[in-house]
Design goal:
about 15% strand; two-stranded antiparallel ribbon
């Protein structure tokens, strides 16, 4: 396993993080992802630790908190061997204030996560989304207080726009509060918008990319093929899952899959291994969150590290997955002499 610094922090994280969205299987969305129980989770954690993957990501809304509980049980007795990443902000309860990034919501959200996880500290705590109804100052001061109290050690955000993140960093800087060192964001070979604004920001400000759904919301598993029905086990069979995630045009998807197949034939690697390895070559990326319903899937994903694609193979994948940029990014690409794109695209 390779390790990288998480943004501008002194914390090193594995380039692969295990995501617990498949733990619990409660609710229509998460039922389609998986229903891993404690016994299965322990086996998966064992396999991760054997491979050097020691970071596990969760959230309070994953199966209504069950995912955190199962993760806590799976790591019991070996807390010192793992890094825990979790999130809050989305609605978790029916109460009027059981949502958002207010002080009123975040403090009990952290306390409840600690209880479910069976630990007294969280290594990386992230806001699951931007709360425009709460002053940024209130949110950041609360997070800084939680760090001072020893409840959390590093902070990050998730699904922020560029201005959301930059405003938060500027406010933290102004007041001397702890800054975000991570941004958990969607990025894949069939979803490259992260490169337009968030990647340059991350490089400039020292914010590590914690990438969710690096296989394009289940589309780059190698099992989805042109002219063939969706596999019965695919989570994309669920309209709830499909509608909740990123949308991808079919012909574009198959163009990318064709390129992945070509590289797979050249390398002897699987389609998901190549898709993950391509992401690990991108600027600002600190870690990829991988999920697995079983040991076979996990072993395949773990084999995405320890080797590198050639420059020619990367260029082939870049070309197949390129899409027209929206304004102002297409215009900025014409001023590469003084405003270069970090990916060279």
């Amino acid at each position: 396993m390779d390790y990288r610094f998480l943004g501008a922090s002194g914390l090193k994280v594995p380039v692969l993080t295990f995501g617990t969205g498949t733990f619990g299987g409660q609710g229509e969305l998460f039922k389609a992802w998986g229903n891993t129980d404690v016994a299965e989770a322990k086996c998966l954690v064992d396999l991760c630790l054997e491979a050097g993957l020691n970071m596990f990501d969760s959230a309070d809304v994953y199966s209504g908190g069950a995912a955190e509980e199962i993760l806590g049980a799976a790591i019991q007795g070996r807390r010192d061997q793992v890094l825990i990443s979790t999130k809050a902000t989305f609605r978790h309860g029916s109460g009027i204030n059981e949502v958002g990034s207010s002080r009123h919501h975040l403090i009990p959200a952290v306390e409840n996560a600690l209880r479910r996880l069976g630990t007294d500290y969280i290594d990386l705590f992230q806001l699951h989304g931007f709360d425009a109804a709460t002053p940024v100052e209130e949110t950041l001061r609360t997070l800084d207080d939680l760090i001072t109290a020893g409840k959390i050690r590093y902070i990050g955000c998730s699904n922020f726009s560029g201005w959301h993140l930059m405003k938060s960093l500027a406010v933290a800087e102004r007041h001397g509060w702890t800054r975000y060192v991570a941004h958990q964001a969607y990025y894949s070979l069939v979803g490259r918008e992260y490169e337009w604004e968030l990647m340059p920001l991350a490089l400039d400000q020292g914010v590590g990319g914690v990438i969710w759904s690096p296989l394009g919301w289940g589309r780059l598993t190698g099992r989805i093929r042109r002219g063939q029905p969706l596999p019965s086990s695919s989570r994309l069979q669920s309209s709830v899952v499909t509608n909740a995630g990123p949308q991808v045009a079919e012909e574009y998807l198959f163009k990318v899959v064709d390129a992945l197949d070509e590289v797979a034939a050249e390398t002897g690697k699987t389609v998901p291994q190549i898709a993950l390895n391509w992401l690990l070559s991108r600027p600002s990326v600190a870690t990829l969150i991988i999920g697995a319903r079983n040991e076979s899937q996990l072993r395949d994903n773990l084999s995405a590290v320890g080797w590198s694609l050639t420059a020619e193979q990367i260029a082939k994948l870049d070309q197949a997955s390129a899409v027209p940029k929206i304004y102002p990014y297409w215009h900025q690409a014409g001023f590469s002499e003084r405003n270069p794109f970090p990916t060279g695209a």
